[in-house]
Give the backbone structure.
Amino acid sequence: MRVGIIGAGGVGVELVNYLLTLGSTSEIVLVNRNQEKAQGEVADFSFVESFTYARNTHLHSGDYVDCAHCDVIVVTAGITLKEGQSRDELLGENAALIQKIIRELYMYAPQAIVIMVTNPVDVLTHIAYKEGLYPKERLISAGTLVDTARFMKIVSKKVGIDPKNINGYILGEHGKESTLPWSICNICGLDVDTFCELNGLALLDRAQIYQDVINAGFEVFKHKGNTNHSTAASVFRIIRAIANDEHSVLPLGVYLQGEYGLTDVVLNVPVVVTRKGATKILNYKLLPEELEALHVSAKNMQALARTVL
């Protein structure tokens, strides 16, 4: 597996760390507008090999042409969130950059799977898709996978169960208009209320949990200025699913063409992730109010996309 990373900021560098220490990547190419920064990161990481027992990886800095043989390319480059800004406010500054990046990547790596991370990630994935270059199964928004991880952890603390036994998805957009369909959530195979009732636990405050999920990223940002650890971990999870041809189901942003009654929008829904990308969109029977929330999220994404397209 060869991975290209566009952008040597907090998420890009943290992703390199995951790939070097936990992955089985044969090559990583780190591309950054400030080439000296990328070279410095590569030099620093070169000494990590002395302490790790994972597969030795050829890590180097480069340019888009050096991504020619990459299987997966992760785009993290762009203007980052500043205190007081919303993700949507980044759109104008990052849209033109993403269009340029996606054209450059396609010139050298048309066969790659591209994972978008730059915010507002779902709208920017839509803008990249509209360039008409990469097919929808190979142009993916990392979107709400990190939000789903936050949901799992928040619920796990409430019920005293490992977060990996909490099942559910945050869907819609990666942002304030995301949605949490409780009807498809469960704890250890039991619906949430039944699990709590059978195990002597108070019923979960669903509205508060959803609000805690929405606020989680902003709380971390308030303290340290970014959310690089969890975001990079979520991207690493996607790459691992691709590399191992897992057929795992993850909530990712893909271009919809009729699924859930939605079209011409990139939205996070459960998809099957294989060696070829997001190869299948799964259908769930959502409650009417849950489906309506998904449609509200879609309208917000479409309105934002229209300001640029």
The chain has nine helices and twelve strands.
